[in-house]
Write a structure and sequence with these properties.
By secondary structure, the protein is an alpha/beta fold. It folds into 2 domains: 200 residues, Quinone Oxidoreductase, Chain A, domain 1; 140 residues, 3-Layer(aba) Sandwich (Rossmann fold), CATH 3.40.50.720. The chain contains 11 helices and 17 strands. The strands form 3 sheets. Strands 3, 4, 5, 8, 9, 16 and 17 form a 7-stranded mixed beta sheet that branches. It has a 6-stranded parallel beta sheet with strand order 12-11-10-13-14-15, with helices on both faces. Helix 5 runs parallel beside helix 6. One of its GO terms (biological process) is formaldehyde catabolic process. One of its GO terms (cellular component) is cytosol. Keywords: Metal-binding, NAD, Oxidoreductase, Zinc. GO terms for molecular function: S-(hydroxymethyl)glutathione dehydrogenase [NAD(P)+] activity; zinc ion binding.
Length: 378
C-alpha cells in the first residue's frame, strides 16, 4: 500500500524541463493535494516517448515551459479529491493523455475515443480549474498531456486515470499508456485490417512495432516493415513482419514503387510511424492499391509542415489520422490481460531500465536510435 499524505503537500523529485531544447534538471518540487475531481498518483514507472522529445525540442508550440514531461506512465493512487468515484487509494492505474469522462457529447457519440472534458486546459498545462499542482522554488511548473509522469508524484483529473488489475506489472504496463494501444489499435481499429490482407509499416520504432503486432493479430497475410536502419529488422520480424525493406538499398527507385512490386500493384493498408516526415507520409499514401485501401498517419509533423497531395491520389483510397489507436481509457485493462495471457508483447520493447538521474541519457539514446523504450524506475 502506498503511503498516504492525504490533504498535505508532498515534496518529491522530478525531472523539470525549464526551457525548450535544454537538458532536464532533477529538482525537488512541491505537489499539492488533489482538489475536487482529482487524483494524486505515486508514479512507479515512466518510459521515454518520442512525444516527450518532440515537445522538449520546442517544435510543439501548445505547451508552456517550465513543465514536467512524461506521459507513458504507471503508478498507484495515493489520495483522491472530493467527488472522485473512478478510483480509490491503493488502486493501480495507467494515466491517460486521452481523457475519458463518459459524459460529454464525444464520449456519448459512440463514434470516437476523443473526449471533450479537458480539451480547453490540458494543452495549456493546467488542471481543469485553471491552475497547476506543481511548483519549484516558488515558481509554477506546468503539467504535460494531463499526466507529467517524470515526477515521483503527480496530480490528474479522475478522467485521466484508468484502473488496471491489482497484479498488473507496473514496470511493463506503463507502455500501455501510449505506444502499444496507439499502434496496435491503428491496425485493429482505425484501419480494421482484414485477414489475409497486405500491410506496410513505415518506421520500426515502438509505434511501428505495435502496428506490426496489431496487423499480425488481425491476420494480415503480408506485413512489410520499412525502415532506413536495417538493424531494426530482426526485431520487426519477431513482432510479426513477414518482409523488410530498406529504401536506402534501392536509391534509384521510389519506395512506393518497390512496395507495389512486392504486392502486385499496391498495399491494402499502410501506416506512417516514421516521425513526421511529410515525404514518407506521401510515400505511404502512394504505395496503396486503388481497391478501397487505407493509409493511417500516426506520426506528427513539425508545426507548420503541411501534407498535400493530388486529389487523384485519393481515388479508391482513404487517408486518415489516428489518436491513441481509437482506444478508450476504460479498455486499457484489456491490454493488460492480453499481456498476462502471453498474447501481447511488451518486454521486447524495453531496451533497458534506468533511474530518473539518467533521464537525459535516455533521451539521447532515443534520439540516436540506441533504444526502443527505456523505462524509468521512479
Amino acid at each position: 500500500m502506498t503511503q498516504s499524505f492525504e490533504g498535505k503537500t508532498i515534496t518529491c523529485r522530478a525531472a523539470v524541463a525549464w526551457e525548450a531544447a535544454k537538458p532536464l534538471t532533477i529538482e525537488e518540487i512541491q505537489v499539492e493535494p488533489p482538489r475536487a475531481g482529482e487524483v494524486r498518483v505515486k508514479v512507479t514507472h515512466s518510459s521515454i516517448c518520442h512525444s516527450d522529445a518532440y515537445t522538449l525540442s520546442g517544435k510543439d508550440y501548445a505547451y508552456r515551459f517550465p513543465m514536467i514531461l512524461g506521459h507513458e506512465t504507471s503508478g498507484i493512487v495515493e489520495s483522491v479529491g472530493e467527488g472522485v468515484t473512478k478510483v480509490k487509494p491503493g488502486d493501480r492505474v495507467i494515466p491517460l493523455y486521452m481523457a475519458e469522462c463518459g459524459m460529454c457529447p464525444l464520449c456519448l457519440s459512440g463514434k470516437t475515443n476523443l473526449c471533450g472534458a479537458l480539451l480547453k486546459t490540458q494543452a495549456m498545462g493546467i488542471m481543469p480549474d485553471g491552475s497547476s499542482r506543481f511548483s519549484c522554488r516558488g515558481e509554477t511548473i506546468y503539467h504535460f498531456m494531463g499526466i507529467s509522469g517524470f515526477s515521483e508524484y503527480t496530480v490528474l483529473s479522475q478522467f485521466s486515470v484508468s484502473k488496471v488489475d491489482d497484479d498488473a506489472p507496473l514496470d511493463k504496463v506503463c507502455l500501455i499508456g501510449c505506444c502499444i494501444p496507439t499502434g496496435y489499435g491503428a491496425a485493429t481499429r482505425i484501419a480494421n485490417v482484414k485477414k489475409g490482407s497486405s500491410c506496410a509499416i513505415f518506421g520500426c520504432g515502438a509505434l511501428g512495432l505495435s502496428v506490426i503486432q496489431g496487423a499480425k493479430a488481425a491476420g494480415a497475410g503480408k506485413i512489410i516493415a520499412v525502415d532506413i536502419n536495417s538493424a531494426k529488422f530482426d526485431q520487426a520480424k519477431h513482432f510479426g513482419a513477414t518482409h523488410c525493406v530498406n529504401p536506402l538499398e534501392t536509391p534509384d527507385v521510389k519506395i512506393e514503387q518497390v512496395l507495389k512490386e512486392l504486392t502486385d500493384g499496391g498495399l491494402d493498408y499502410t501506416f506512417d510511424t516514421s516521425g513526421g516526415n511529410i515525404e514518407v507520409m506521401k510515400s505511404a499514401l502512394e504505395a496503396l492499391n486503388n481497391d478501397d485501401s487505407t493509409c493511417v498517419i500516426i506520426s506528427l509533423a513539425d508545426a507548420g509542415n503541411v501534407l498535400s497531395t493530388n486529389t487523384t491520389s485519393l481515388v479508391g483510397r482513404k487517408l486518415t489520422g489516428c489518436a491513441f489507436g481509437g482506444v478508450k481509457g476504460s479498455e486499457l485493462n484489456d491490454y493488460v490481460k492480453l499481456y498476462k495471457e502471453d498474447k501481447l508483447l511488451i518486454d521486447e520493447y524495453i531496451t533497458k531500465n534506468i533511474n530518473i538521474d539518467e533521464i537525459n541519457d535516455g533521451f539521447d539514446d532515443l534520439k540516436h536510435g540506441r533504444s526502443v523504450r527505456e523505462v524509468i524506475f521512479m
